[in-house]
Amino acid sequence: MAFLVRRFLAQYGRLVLIVGAIIMSVGCMGILGWMALGAVRPVRLIPVLLLACVGMGLVSGPLGAVSVARVERQQAGSASGIIKTVQQMGVALGIALVGSAYLRLAESGRGEAAALAVMLALLALCLFWAARLPKEIFPRKAGKGTMAEKKHYHRENLKRDLFEAGRDFVQKHGHHELSMRMLAQLADVSPGASYHHFADRRAILLAVAIDGYERLLNQVIEPQETDLLPVEKIKAGASRFVRF
User: Fold this and answer.
1) Contacts 24+ apart (CB under 8 A), 37-46
2) pLDDT of 149-197, one tens digit each?
3) Distance CA 147, CA 69 (A)
4) Which of 53, 147, 166, 206 is the most buried (most CB within 10 A)?
5) Closest CA to 120 of 32, 181, 187
6) CA–CA dist 122, 141 (Å, integer)
7) What is the pLDDT of residues 51-78, one digit of tens each?
8) Helix ranges restricted to H, the chain
């Protein structure tokens, strides 16, 4: 489920998280509702369990990508570790809160209702923050976006500008630090604009590599089309190869 969510994220953005939290809330309500009825056959819990699982997948699937969207590449490893730590702490805290609410009112028969109230409160908090996430941190699907964005990146020869910016950056700083967000900054376009011409970081690096090999090949072949002696042609080609 988490794998499929990555594809929805580019098209629907934060709506994926919001819908996921709502679906998960409905599933949790169904689970606790069946439990409140008393003796329930396990097979009856399957639909609401699946619903809760779908909601959890919609929320947790894009969590990593959204959380590190504005983190510099060199800090991505540390950021991922922090995310995992916070997730574990959140799980422990959530279990403690829900469990405490249930056990406190279990004897009075209101344990399920208390647990449900705490869970819904936590999910409502998630909904609130998901709705406030900036749209810029979500990857954009080609062909989508607002009219303002389209006017911003549909300028003449933008693909060439993006390519040249990426090529110049790689020549000066190497390929390790180049990201799609940095490429957009170098070309002075919106973060989502680069995705309309290059699918991802590997695509721009591949284009730079192919261009480099083509220019190298042209440099080496050019002396072969002259009237130089064969030995001189080889020397000229080898010299150009080394200088390139």
Assistant:
1) none
2) 444 445 558 888 888 888 888 888 887 878 888 888 888 887 777 888 8
3) 23
4) 166
5) 32
6) 31
7) 888 888 777 777 766 666 666 655 666 7
8) 2-12, 15-36, 46-60, 63-67, 76-105, 111-131, 147-153, 158-173, 180-187, 201-221, 230-243
CA 45 to chain centre: 33
What span, in angstroms and rounded, lies between the C-alpha atoms of 109 and 124? Answer: 25
SS3 144: coil
Contact 193, 173 (CB under 8 A): no
CB atoms inside a 10 Å sphere around CB 119: 20
| Buried b / exposed e along 15-35 (16+ C-beta atoms within 10 A) | ebbbbbbebbbbbbbbbbebe
CA triplet 128, 131, 134: central angle to 5 degrees? Answer: 130
Q: Identify whether the C-beta of residue 68 lies closer than 8 Å to the C-beta of residue 76.
A: yes
Taking alpha carbons only, the member of 25, 34, 84 closest to residue 52 is: 25
Query: What gap in Å lies between CA 241 and CA 244, rounded to an integer?
Result: 5
Query: Residue 34: what residue type?
Result: W
d(CA 81, CA 70): 15
CA atoms within 13 A on the CB side of 15: 6
Q: What's the pTM value of the predicted model, to 2 decimals?
A: 0.45
Residue 2 to residue 66: CA distance in whole angstroms: 13
Query: Rounded distance, CA 19 to CA 13, Å?
Result: 11
Q: What is the pLDDT of residues 122-149, one digit of tens each?
A: 878 877 877 777 665 555 554 444 444 4
